[in-house]
Amino acid sequence: MINVLAGIPLVGDLVKTIFGSSEERDQYQASARSDVYKQFAAEFGHGKTWWDSLIDGLNRLPRPVMTFGTIYIFWLCWTDPTKFLDGAVALQSMPKEGWYILGAIVTFWFAAKLPKDFGKYKAAPSIPVYTKESSTKYKTGGGADPQEGIEWGDRVANRYNE
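Given the sequence above, the corresponding structure tokens read:
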């Protein structure tokens, strides 16, 4: 029994060698966090002027204004449809370039990424058309079925033997 207890410090030292000391790790994290806070205080600790506060406030306005503006449009449609229609007709008279500019602004503020093929015409993918002859045989718009005439069991066997 004494021989088993004598080996425990050896196991503890081995674990400490492999995984490190949790006390040392905690001390290191605390000092690193303290260094980050000191750097932050040195960079941003100076007093804000009224100009800094004004610019910060203006930078925070676009998202809430667009969000509440959209909610207002839905509310207006529900409460005063004639006023909503007047606004909708006015928006229809806006030239296409104006919509592009508005889209660029909204994309900037909401950090949306448009796909590279945005605005380009894409042909619809070909959809399999089922014929009356058989529900297992089909023809696609892109050409003949490569497994035409092969029975279902052979198809499964070929798939799993590849």
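The radius of gyration is 34 Å. Try to locate this feature in the token string yourself.
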